[in-house]
Amino acid sequence: MAQIIGLDTASEIWTALEKIFSAASKACIMQLRFQLQTTKKGGLSMMEYLLKIKSIVANLLAIGENITEQDRILYLLAGLGAEYNSFVITVTSGHEPLSLEEIHSMLLTHENRLEQQHTIEETNLLQANITTMNIQGHNKKNQKSGQFKTQGRGNQNKQQFNHQNFGRGRGRGHYNNNGGNFGHGPGRGSFNNHSYSCGNFNKVSGGSNGKPQCQVCGKYGHIAINCYHRFDQTYQPTMNNHLAAMVATPSIVGDESWYMDTEATHHLTPNLNKLNSHTQFVGSDKVMVGNDLWHFRLGHPARKIVNKVLSACSLPPEHWTGICEPCQMAKSHRLPFTLSESRASQPFALVHSDLWGPTPVVDFPFAKPSTVQPPCRVSPTHCAIPLAAPITPISSLLPSSSNPSSELVPISNTSVSISSSEVAPIPTAQPSSSHVPSPCHPMTTRAKNGIFKPKIFLSPTETIFHPLCEPNSFKEAVKVPEWQQAMHLEFEALMSNRTWVLVSPPPNQNIIGCRWVYKLKYKPDGTVERYKARLVAKGFHQTPDFDYFETFSPVVKPTTIRVVLSLALSKNWSIRQLDVHNAFLNGDLSEQVFMTQPPGFMDPSKPNFVCKLTKALYGLKQAPRAWFTKLSSALVKWGFSVSQADTSMFVYCNNSAMLVVLVYVDDIIVTGLSSLLIEQLISSLNSCFALKDLGPFNFFLGIEVLNSGSSLYLSQAKYICDLLQRAGLSESKSMASPMAAGPVLSIADGTRLEDPTLYRSLVGALQYCTITKPDIAYTVNKLCQFMHAPTSTHLQAVKRVLRYLKGSLFYGLSFQPSSSLDLIAYTDADWASCPDDRRSTSGYCIYFGGNLVSWSTSKQKVVSRSSTESEYRGLANAAAELTWIQSLLKELFVPLFQPPVLYCDNLSTTYLAANPVLHSRAKHVEIDYHFVRERVLQKTLDVRFLPSEDQVVDILTKALSTQRFLHLRSKLIVLSRPVCLRGDVKKLTACLTT
Q1: CA-based diameter of the chain, in Å?
Q2: Residue 122 in this model has a pLDDT that exceeds 60
Q3: How far is 671 from 762, CA to CA, in rounded Å?
Q4: Residue pair 201/195 in contact by the 8 Å Cβ criterion
Q5: What is the pLDDT of residues 731-770, one digit of tens each?
Q6: How many CA atoms lie within 13 A of 353 on its CB side?
């Protein structure tokens, strides 16, 4: 009854009940399909198993899920046990498909046959027509000691044959292990009705009254070639005690292949699992196959050595003629080095050295040692060659004298010298071509006190600065022409704007420093757009109430941006993007600020002077406020009004013409219905400030925007790729959800991190990802609660979020146009979810025109005594956000024809919002109660109940299972990038990861 309270008509009640209890849900279909795939026969009878499969299929058909007959047959065969393997192979390999009814009949028949075979008494054992090979009797005249064959067609009456050949069968079925061969050949005949034993080839009676017995059906009076069951592959004769038994040896041998198309009636296999049914053989006959075991036991010696050892131990010699693969691989030799024809007539004319290498670890950057062919002949004069590792030069091993170079003997012209072409892959300093003499020093003796100084090796390479790297200092940047040009452009802009004047250092004044900051600007595809150098004042040296008083940063709220984008898309407005060059330099300073001259651009005529700033400069505390004051005064002068809901939004409205300007520091978004007004505004801004028109809205604050005309797609693929690279997880495996649905993270989990810098840096970067990915908002909020004391478990949770972002790299927030611009909100709370302080987690999400424009997830500031209290606090937060968005829409001249609807899945909360009764369990939340009640009474808010199954905000308040998480993620309109806009995925991914 609780689920239909509040519904007025019978139609609404039936509709609600249908949604709740309808069996035709996606979850029910997936559950039945999973049950169909995992159903096994096990210990059920065949009839019970068939009825179980039929029942599941009937349930699927009843809810509208179509299952073809072929799918039913596949599911049916997949659940059978190992005893039905031959049946499954026979059915699946047939050329003509069988119907489901025929499969049922064949399975029941096969089950009856298996039951009959298992009920045969042990006394009625089968006899095996096998021959025991006496390996000791083998000699040189018989080299094929392990071969067994059946005679071909027409030899069914032959009574005697030797141990080399008997019973040749048709088909590919064979067994071959080190020379042994069973059942191989093109013939169709097999064992006849006679039994043989080793050393005794007397005929045994084959049947009643001397009639021949068929080897196919087992009946008397005809032979196999005249049997009409010969071509029926599914026919299996009734076995009796006169037929040969299927014998298996448990030893592991080489080939375990068992082919189903053979027509031999008697089979030998080394694998017991290949047989559907088997009985224990009682008899003295054995099958022996050579397996070269002595060769392996004795350590793979030569064949002569093995036979010599066996004969000494009175054991029969081995006659295996196969090839031992380990011997071929392990006993092979490499080709020797060619001998050098050079000879030396005097000592030390040629020096033979044995160098160790390559090293398992690269000791120096970019150096890769290479192996030198032993022996290596080195010229004593080649001692100044750059090496990949600190190796003592050969010349230091030679005797020294007062004039070493004059006593060196000339070497041969054909001697080998070490080359440096294989050592360093980057440009290094070239060695001097002049002769470097060997060191002349006295003999080094042992230290008297046993104290030795460690050897210090200087790196043979030097890392050069690449222009695509962002330099950390002026010394690094001045070496690269691109950065030099960027600094010159910045300095010229400062001078043209008259940012400062040089004065002598005033007494009792705070003189702050400055530095250059370098940044590479990238395009949306990851390529470099420009090199940007900026002179930044060291504002952290400023003193409050002395050289600055008030601060303010003109940053538009993300919710405001999403509301304006949704409105512009629904009304088909054009969106333009602008960038102001050196925006802070346009602000005027009212305080006296002194700064040192910039590095590299000091005035040589006034080296001791300082800069008295007349314009705002980046890094100053008051610079953002000075720039915003200058910009807002210009916009207000042109007829714009400053928004009261968001001071970074300016609105111009004149009759039907309307323009909206959003300011984020020096990045500006302009949208409106009239393209002519937009061009006039851009022209006016360009006359006052150094402006750059970036064209249509496509890349803003690291957010990639794809506009297809009918939809907008916001993503941060480039930003996420950079974050993954910084965390070292670019090659990691992706995850399907950002957080496991197990126990909630606690502050006591794991061990404390010694250095929490990486954790704090990654979590701070993840907060910016939530601008376009609300699906990770709860996880990031939870990880932010451990910033003060992160542990190893918390760091693993951060890496899981990054791996999820890697898997959802091209997923982002999608906006669709809508004709009805209504506000709909959802709110939820997870009561006492934090295991450390038992506070609740609340969240909400708000849709404007069907597009998600605002969401929040946060831990409540106080402990709630009941779930109703926690839900009501979350309801109040959502109502406050809705009130603010209503005021924002009012300034944008967007009327709301009906009050916003706020959904909650707690009935007690909805009762408190609708009824003017103050319950005892909610009297301590009086302020929130009166705030929501006032909005409901004024009919500016409509609080409604919805079932928990339809609650979207679950993804913002708790960790969910993967299936539930993916379902709710689609409800947040976090979708994959449109295929038509993506382009070449490989090229795009390569650009994003560079």
Answers
A1: 136
A2: no
A3: 34
A4: no
A5: 889 999 999 988 888 988 889 999 999 999 999 999 999 9
A6: 22
- Can you tell me the mean pLDDT for 705-718? 86
Amino acid identity at 265: T
Q: pLDDT value at position 411?
A: 41
Q: Name the packing angle between helices 867-891 and 558-570 (round to 10°).
A: 60
CA–CA distance, 779 with 627 (Å, rounded to integer): 37
Q: Round to whole Å and give the CA distance between 786 and 764.
A: 12
| Structure confidence by residue, pLDDT tens digits, 620-644 | 988 888 889 999 999 999 999 999 9
R_g (Cα) of the chain, nearest Å: 44
Q: Is the peptide bond before 375 cis (omega within 30 degrees of 0)?
A: yes
- Distance set, CA 7 to CA 1, 3, 910 (Å): 11, 9, 13
* Tens of pLDDT, residues 934-985: 888 888 899 999 998 999 999 999 999 999 999 999 999 999 887 654 455 5
Query: Which of 271, 289, 269 has the alpha carbon at shortest distance from 128?
Result: 269
CA dist., res. 85 & res. 78, Å (int) = 10
Please state, in angstroms and rounded to a whole number, the distance separating the CA atoms of residues 959 and 745.
10
Indicate the residue type of 424. Answer: A
Cα dihedral 783, 785, 789, 794 in deg (nearest 10): -20
Looking at residue 663, its pLDDT comes to 93
d(CA 258, CA 174): 8
Q: DSSP for 88-119?
A: HHHHHT-SSPPPHHHHHHHHHHHHHHHHHHHT
Q: Give the closest residue to 610 by CA, choosing from 517, 541, 507.
A: 507
> For residue 257, which phi and psi values (nearest 5 degrees)?
-70, 140
What gap in Å lies between CA 366 and CA 578, rounded to an integer? 43
User: Is 673 exposed, middle or buried, given 0-12, 13-18 or 19+ CB atoms closer than 10 A?
Assistant: middle
Q: What's the CA gap between 597 and 617, in Å, rounded? A: 13
Residues contacting 745, CB < 8 A, separation 6+: 782, 783, 786, 793, 794, 797
* Region of 171 on the Ramachandran plot (φ > 0 left; ψ -120 to 50 alpha; else beta): left
Taking the chain, what is the end-to-end CA distance rounded to the nearest angstrom? 59
> 775 in the Ramachandran plot: left (φ > 0), alpha (ψ -120 to 50) or beta?
alpha
What CATH number matches the domain at 817-972, 3.30.420.10, 1.20.120.140, 3.30.565.10, 3.60.150.10?
3.30.420.10
For residues 695 and 591, is the Cβ–Cβ distance under 8 A?
no
Please, which residues have CB within 8 angstroms of residue 374's CB and are 6 or more apart in sequence?
A: 337, 354, 355
Alpha carbon distance 892, 651 (integer Å): 7
Query: How many whole angstroms separate alpha carbon 76 and alpha carbon 37?
Result: 9
HEC states along 586-651?
HCECCCCCEECCCCCCCCCCCCCCEEEECECCCCCCCHHHHHHHHHHHHHHHCCCEECCCCCCEEE
Residue pair 762/798 in contact (Cβ under 8 Å)? The answer is yes
pLDDT digits (tens, 9 = 90+) for 530-554: 898 989 999 888 888 787 888 888 8
921's torsion region: left (phi>0), alpha (psi -120 to 50) or beta? alpha
User: Residues 359-379: what's their mean pLDDT?
Assistant: 45
**Which of 450, 452, 535 minimizes the C-alpha distance to 490?**
535
- Find the DSSP H helices in 436-590: 474-477, 481-496, 558-570
SS3 923: helix
* Amino acid at residue number 656: S
Measured CA to CA in angstroms, residue 348 lies from 381, 397, 404, 411, 435 at distances of 11, 11, 13, 9, 18
Chain position carrying tokens 């119907």: 99
The length of the chain, given as a count of residues: 994
